[in-house]
# Entry
Amino acid sequence: MNDVSAPNAAKHAQIIEAAVSEFQDKGFAAASMDRISLRAEVSKRTLYKYFESKENLFRSIVLELSNRFAGVQDVRYQKGRDIREQLTELAWAEGRILMLPEVMAMSRMVISETLRNPDLAAAAQGKLDKTAIFAAMLKDAADDGQLRIEDPQAAGQEFIGLIKAKAFWPIIFSGDVLNKDEMEATINSSVDMILSRYGV
# Structure
């Protein structure tokens, strides 16, 4: 239902943006498909052509948010290559997305709704949690002798936590994303911390 051809991608994005605003303003329960169609400047028929229901629309926003972070999945450990370079590359794959205002707007909306609705939270968590990718990189680096890690999953959580402590959670509340220099400083500091803790 949500698959759209390239010519209609702009309309799809328009509806998603309108839905994010509506969910933020009214909350999921009180959000109205009628108001979303008005915000998006599309007919109700067009809205329902793309999204069968409010629940379907929310899931699509979570999927869209997850897809924005797809680049993180492409970063894989390369045997023998300098570990600092690889950790920095992985952190930038995450950090680059956290610099986009529309991503933070979607994140803010999803978080506010998942706090109200545990069912929505469970569905969103599985799609948005990239800890496994960080853990895999750290495990492979440890197997290759470049790091000393007993619990890669915990180390992956720590690595993401260091980045999000400055580049995500404060932004959820303040609304101002980090600029490139601020993100670079955050990433360098996070990588330094991981190497200080787990470097051989």
